[in-house]
C-alpha cells in the first residue's frame, strides 16, 4: 500500500507506529469559515501527509446565509432634467435600489443631444440584463412627465421622489389603449 493510502495501524502491544510522527496544524480564518491544515511528518517515510479540512465557523448561522436571488434593477435619468444634480440623482437611485433589495446592474443616462429614442434603449437594456425594475429620480425624466404605459407593461417603475412604485402586475389600463371586453359563450 502507498503511504498516502495507508490506514492507521492498530496499536500492537502498546506500541503505536504513529507516535513517532510529528503533527503540525495550521489554522487560517477567512470570512465564513476556518481552514485547517494538518500535516504529519514521518521520519521513517519520505512521504508526508497533508490533509485539508474546511469547516464553517458556525454551521447553524450559515444555514440562512446561502446565496439568495435578488431581482435586478437598472437606473435611468435624463441629463437635461437632472442638470448639475446628475451625480446626486445617480447616488439616490443606487441607494434606493440597495434599500429595496435589488441587484443594481446599470445606469442609463439619456442626453437629448444624441436624439436616440430613450424608452427604446431603456427597454432593450432591461431585456439584455433581465431587469425587473427601473428606478428613476422622478416622472419628469420622461416626456411630458408621465411614465410610459409600454414601459410599465414590461418593468416595475420606481421613482425616488416621490417614492412610488408603478408595478407591472397592477397596471391600470392606459387611456390611449382601447378597453378590452370579454364575451362569454
**Radius of gyration from CA coordinates:** 31 Å
| Total count of strands | 8
Give the averaged pLDDT, no decimals: 74
Shape: elongated
Trace the largest sheet across and list its strands.
Answer: 5-4-6-7-8
Relative strand content: 25-35%
Query: CA-to-CA gap between the ends?
Result: 81 Å
> Class by helix and strand content?
alpha/beta
Query: How helix-rich are the residues, as a percent range?
Result: 10-25%
Q: How do the SSEs run, as a string of H and E?
A: EEEHEHHEHEHEE
Q: What ranges have pLDDT less than 50 throughout 5 or more consecutive residues? A: 1-14, 177-185
Give the biggest sheet.
5 strands, mixed
In DSSP terms (H or I, runs of 4 or more residues), the helix count works out at 5
Give a structural overview.
There is one protein chain. By secondary structure, the chain is of the alpha/beta class. It has five helices and eight strands, in the order βββαβααβαβαββ. It has helices at 59-62, 79-82, 86-99, 118-129, 149-154; strands spanning 22-30, 33-41, 49-55, 72-78, 103-110, 133-136, 156-159, 164-166. Strands 5-4-6-7-8 form a five-stranded mixed β-sheet, sandwiched between helices. A hairpin with a 7-residue loop joins β2 (33-41) and β3. The radius of gyration is 31 Å and the shape is elongated. Mean pLDDT is 74; it is low at 1-14 and 177-185.
Amino acid at each position: 500500500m502507498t503511504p498516502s493510502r495507508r490506514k492507521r495501524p492498530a496499536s500492537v502491544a502498546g506500541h503505536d507506529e504513529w507516535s513517532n510522527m510529528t503533527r503540525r496544524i495550521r489554522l487560517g480564518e477567512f470570512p465564513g469559515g476556518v481552514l485547517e491544515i494538518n500535516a504529519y511528518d514521518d521520519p521513517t517515510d519520505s512521504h508526508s501527509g497533508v490533509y485539508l479540512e474546511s469547516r464553517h465557523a458556525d454551521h447553524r448561522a450559515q444555514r440562512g446565509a446561502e446565496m439568495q436571488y435578488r431581482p435586478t434593477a437598472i437606473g435611468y435619468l435624463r441629463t437635461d432634467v437632472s442638470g448639475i444634480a446628475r451625480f446626486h440623482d445617480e447616488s439616490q437611485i443606487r441607494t434606493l435600489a440597495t434599500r429595496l433589495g435589488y441587484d443594481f446592474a446599470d445606469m442609463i443616462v439619456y442626453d437629448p443631444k444624441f436624439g436616440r429614442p430613450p424608452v427604446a434603449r431603456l427597454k432593450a437594456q432591461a431585456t439584455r440584463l433581465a431587469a425587473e425594475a427601473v428606478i428613476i429620480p422622478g416622472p419628469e425624466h420622461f416626456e411630458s412627465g408621465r411614465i410610459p404605459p409600454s414601459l410599465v407593461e414590461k418593468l416595475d417603475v420606481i421613482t425616488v421622489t416621490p417614492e412610488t412604485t408603478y408595478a407591472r402586475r397592477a397596471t391600470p389600463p392606459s387611456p390611449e389603449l382601447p378597453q378590452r371586453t370579454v364575451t362569454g359563450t
